[in-house]
Specification:
With about 200 residues, the chain is an alpha/beta fold. The chain folds into two domains: about 50 residues, RecR Domain 1 (Helicase, Ruva Protein, domain 3, Orthogonal Bundle); about 140 residues, Dna Topoisomerase Vi A Subunit, Chain: A, domain 2 (3-Layer(aba) Sandwich), CATH 3.40.1360.10. Helices cover about 45% and strands about 15% of the residues. Strand 3, helix 5 and strand 4 form a beta-alpha-beta unit. Helix 1 crosses helix 2. The chain is elongated. The N and C termini lie far apart (about 50 Å).
C-alpha cells in the first residue's frame, strides 16, 4: 500500500510501479522515491525511454519478435537458414538463444504458451501464423524451444500434431534442461548443447 500521507503523484507512481512483474509494494515505494530524488534529466530520460518503447517498437510481421524495423533484422538477414525455425514463447527467449551463437535459422515467437486455466488457448498465440509459414513451403524443420514446463510441453505437443501432417520435421530441445526452469535463465553452454542434441518429438 502506498504511504497514506504521500502526495497524489507519488501514490500514483507507486501504484504504476507495483503493476510491473516482480515488483511488490515495498519495491514500488523504493523505486518511486528514487525517481523523486534523481536528477530531473534522469527522470525525463526514463519517461522518454518508456514513451519511445511504446511508440516505436512493433512486432515483426514474419516472426513476431519485437523490433523497430519490419521485418526484423534476423528475418531480413539473407545469411540465415530459412528452412529452420526455432519456436519460442517470448521475445526475450530469442535473445537468449541468439547469445549462444549456435543457431543460424529463423524464429517464431508465440507470445505465450497454452494454459487453459489462465484462459490462454491456441487463438491467443501466434500459432496460425506459424502454420502459414509451414504451408508456404521451404520449411524443413521446426525446433520447439518452449519452456520445459507443463504449459511449454503441452504447447510443443499441440504444435507437433499440427505441423507433422504438413511434412515438417518437428524437434524439441534435448532433455537435460532443468524441469520447471525458464529458458531465459539457462546458461549459454547448457542451451547450446540442448540445441545440438535436439530430438524428434
Amino acid at each position: 500500500m502506498p504511504d497514506a500521507g504521500a502526495p497524489e503523484p507519488i501514490t500514483r507512481l507507486i501504484q504504476e510501479f507495483s503493476k510491473l512483474p516482480g515488483i511488490g509494494p515495498k519495491s514500488a515505494q523504493r523505486l518511486s522515491y528514487h525517481v523523486l530524488g534523481a536528477p530531473e534529466e534522469d527522470a525525463r530520460a526514463l519517461a522518454k525511454a518508456l514513451q519511445d518503447v511504446k511508440e516505436t517498437v512493433v512486432l515483426c510481421s514474419i516472426c513476431f519478435n519485437i523490433t523497430v524495423n519490419n521485418p526484423c533484422l534476423l528475418c531480413g538477414d539473407e545469411e540465415r537458414d530459412r528452412s529452420l525455425v526455432c519456436v519460442v514463447e517470448q521475445p526475450l527467449d530469442v535473445l537468449v538463444v541468439e547469445r549462444t551463437g549456435g543457431f543460424r535459422g529463423l524464429y517464431h515467437v508465440l507470445h505465450g504458451a497454452l494454459n487453459p486455466i489462465e484462459g490462454v488457448g491456441p487463438e491467443k498465440l501466434r500459432i496460425q501464423e506459424l502454420l502459414g509459414r509451414a504451408e508456404a513451403g521451404g520449411l524443413k524443420e521446426v525446433i520447439m524451444a518452449t519452456n520445459p514446463s507443463l504449459e511449454g510441453e503441452a504447447t510443443s505437443m499441440y504444435l507437433q500434431r499440427l505441423l507433422q501432417p504438413l511434412g515438417v520435421r518437428v524437434t524439441r530441445l534435448a532433455r537435460g534442461l532443468p524441469s520447471g526452469a525458464d529458458i531465459e535463465y539457462l546458461d549459454d553452454l547448457t542451451l547450446s548443447r540442448a540445441l545440438e542434441g535436439r530430438q524428434e518429438l
